[in-house]
């Protein structure tokens, strides 16, 4: 019988001891200690994630700036159509004037071919290579083929 009593007393002591350990393990100060351990372990990883996200944000801002700059360049190109049409018109006008000058040069060289002047042989232009316009107005840039602005 004494053995049973002893076992009962040992059981009570161990139960109370376990209860005390359980209480100490779950005490608020211990909980705060565990929380502090967790923060110390996970904080460096969180800081690394934050810096990674900041780098990604900077790269994103750079990409946004590049796209906005490209869009403004494309808009500028679409507005340049007016200038290209103006250039095309000027080129057509230039071709027309060149053709007129070529035809005038062909006519004038047939009509008036002067013999080369021996004294002007050192000159870079001979009189036979000059265009004689015979009553035509000289070409003025920015004017039409007749010389009027």
From TrEMBL:
InterPro entries: BORCS8. This is BLOC-1 related complex subunit 8. Residues 119-129 have a biased composition (Low complexity). Residues 104-149 are annotated as: Disordered. Keywords: Lysosome, Membrane. One of its GO terms (cellular component) is lysosomal membrane. The gene is borcs8. It is found in: Lysosome membrane. The keyword Metal-binding does not apply. The keyword Coiled coil does not apply. PANTHER family: BLOC-1-RELATED COMPLEX SUBUNIT 8 (PTHR21146:SF0), MEF2B PROTEIN (PTHR21146). Pfam families: BORCS8. Belongs to the BORCS8 family.
């Amino acid at each position: 019988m004494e053995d049973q009593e002893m076992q009962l007393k040992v059981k009570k002591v161990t139960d109370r001891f376990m209860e005390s350990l359980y209480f100490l393990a779950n005490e608020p100060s211990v909980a705060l200690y565990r929380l502090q351990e967790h923060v110390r372990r996970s904080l460096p990883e969180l800081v690394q994630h934050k810096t990674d996200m900041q780098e990604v944000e900077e790269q994103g801002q750079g990409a946004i700036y590049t796209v906005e700059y490209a869009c403004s360049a494309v808009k500028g190109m679409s507005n340049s159509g007016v200038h290209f049409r103006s250039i095309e018109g000027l080129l057509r006008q230039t071709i027309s004037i060149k053709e007129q000058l070529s035809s005038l040069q062909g006519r004038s060289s047939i009509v008036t071919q002067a013999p080369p002047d021996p004294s002007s042989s050192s000159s870079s232009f001979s009189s036979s290579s000059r265009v004689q316009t015979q009553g035509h107005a000289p070409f003025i840039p920015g004017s039409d083929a007749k010389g009027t602005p």
